[in-house]
Amino acid sequence: MASLSPAPASLFPGLLGVFSITAYLTAFLHIESQIGTALLIVGAMALIALLVRFNALDHFQRSFAEREKAMNAAIVVAVIMLALVFHQDHFTLLLIATVMIYMTASLGLTVQFGYAGVLNFAGASFFGIGCYTSAVLTDGTTIPEVLIIVVGGFMAALVGVILLLPVLRTRGHYSAVITIAFALLFKTFLEVNDVLGGPQGLSVGSMSFLGWDFNQGIEIGEVFEASFYLNYVLASLVLLCLAFVFVRRLDRSWIGLNMDAIRLDETAAACFGYNITRWKVTAFMIGNAIAGMAGALYAMMLGFIAPTNFDFGASLILVSIVLFGGIGSPFGVAVATLIVVLLPEKLQILQEYRFLIYATLVILVLLFRPDGLLPRPVRAYFTGRVSP
Amino acid sequence: MDIGLLSQYLVNGLMLGMMYALVAVGFTLFFGVLDIINFSHGDSLMVGTFTGLAAYIALTEIGIVSPLVQVPIVLAAAVLCLAVLGAVVAKYLILPLRAAPPLNTLLITLMLGTVLREAVRLFYPDGSNPKPFPALLPTQSYEFGQFTLRVDNVIMFLAGVVVIIGVHLLINRTKLGLAIRAVAQDEETAKIMGINFNLIVLVTFALGSALAAFAGILNGLYYNEINFSVGLLLGAIGFSAAIIGGLGNIYGAILGGFLFAALQTIGAVALPFASAYKDVFAFGVVILIMAWRPTGLISEKVSERV
């Protein structure tokens, strides 16, 4: 429905929504029993179904679309609050940080799949290049860790350059084979290679920033003691925010417009003089760089990496997150990552069946809701107004 | 290098190439009729091998142990099961997505592959461990110096040749083949000419999947072992083979299959690095070939309607 009144939407429904989601996540992360978790999930599904039935979510969406800055700030505050609530709980903090790192990596894929329409079925490989860069550099050199994260992204983009020529020359199904072949090649390479630890993997040094060692717990006087994972939650939040702002800016810029044109119709775009090569290369490199940076931080957080984390299945999970959320929709990616990463971790019964469930879920989404959970809205050409 | 050793590698390469070619022909058949990639093909193959294995166990349980009876029944069970699976997949997953972008079809089949793989891992008794596959064919061998020629390999290779010739005749000499080719060439005209499009699609999927079942049984007999995860790699190899051959072209797919096996063999024996890198080498060359000939060695005829 188009907004008839020019007045900006109220902030209240959005804030209420963020607050209830935070409260729900707190309960969800806190609860231990399997039955309780299952009840919470069923409850949330019923509630969402009700809200959708009575169009209550429209107000929420309008606050989001029209007051984006305020809402984004609210979400950042919500994440920090969530992390503070669980400040002593290692596992929960690790989970929160993992979700945010996966979101970052999926944002990289969003630039490729969603903006420029470049297929990449090797997302986990580029994520892995970031991880291995981080492992090698923290072990052998004294490069500041923050720089290592940047170098991780740079290395991922650099390795991606090898694939540029074939990716640019092929189209459709033919281009899919290139990244798939690369994903298989990359994992085999890691497994048979002795320098990078082979199948046993490598250990990774911890993150530190201006003398602040991230693997030390935070202590403020005697009042506040927190798990060291809190550091990583904050670091991944910063990385996620940077990536998110960047991806959103990219989408709204003239570059995003060019990429849209290329994705929607390459032939027509070429006829109008768009430089297809340039924007495909840009999208491919940017996406890989974001995934690589996420990987570099992830490796430092885990402290240990092995080739099995970066196989083709892991790449497929990243692709399913992007598709499940809605191709090209950063908010959709956020929601989808929450579901895909958190659900199996909390429902231990599902852990064994998680790949089966992911795959079935994606098949159902493709059959019944092919645009994903939160489809990308039509581009708003005028500021402050949502397109119908 | 010794001539005997060389022929040994040649025979091994030919066996691999035969399996890859059979898988690649399936990919190319599906692409011909619907312009889609069915990435669950490799995992269907694995399901076929497990069906064959289950059939073998059932036969042994009820006391039928003669290989002469077992081989045809095991083959028939796998082929039938996969033909039905292929048709069902086409009807309920692939045909409904015809209007969707190709990425969606690619993904739905990738995910179907994951579902099949995980289902076998979780629900087949002890499915997560490799299973021994019985040697159903005679295992005598003849020694020629360093070269050992096994009778079962010869039988398997000849059977593969027969199947490929059979497919060739089916596609080129029968009315059904004519219909498949017509649909592949121009769907709308084929429909106007009274061809039942949906039926032909289902039959093609059944045929392609049956070929995968055959390749799966060959794979089980060749390695005497079957693993739930074998489908992913075999599927990727078959897909690469079909792509380097040029999609939609059966002879291209066969060429691609043997080419990929040749690359693996060369990567394993003739190059100065460890043989473990053979897949890295083979997939690397695939990427290079795609950079050189973006639509495969025997190119598909493409023109874009604007």
Q: What does this molecule look like?
A:
The complex is a heterodimer of chains A (about 400) and B (about 300). Chain A is mostly helical. Chain A has 2 domains: about 1-85, no CATH class; about 90-320, no CATH class. Helix content of chain A is about 70%, strand content about 5%. Chain A has helices at about 10-30, 35-55, 55-65, 70-85, 90-115, 125-140, 145-170, 175-190, 230-250, 255-265, 265-270, 275-300, 310-325, 330-345, 350, 355-370; strands at about 200-205, 210, 210-215, 220, 225, 305. In chain A, the strands form 3 sheets. A two-stranded antiparallel sheet of chain A has the order 1-6. In chain A, strands 2-3 form a two-stranded antiparallel sheet. In chain A, a hairpin with a 3-residue loop joins strand 4 and strand 5 (about 225). The longest helix of chain A has 27 residues, at about 90-115. Chain A is globular and about 50 Å long. The mean pLDDT of chain A is about 80. Chain B is mainly alpha-helical. Chain B is built from 11 helices and 4 strands, in the order H-H-H-H-E-E-E-H-H-H-H-E-H-H-H. Chain B has helices spanning about 5-35, 40-60, 65-95, 100-125, 150-175, 175-185, 185-190, 195-225, 230-245, 250-270, 280-290; strands at about 130, 140-145, 145-150, 225. Chain B has a two-stranded antiparallel sheet with strand order 1-4. A two-stranded antiparallel ribbon of chain B has the order 2-3. In chain B, helix 1 (about 5-35) packs across helix 6 (about 175-185). The N and C termini of chain B lie far apart (about 55 Å). The model of chain B has no long low-confidence stretch (mean pLDDT about 85). The interface of A and B includes residues 177, 191 and 268 of A.
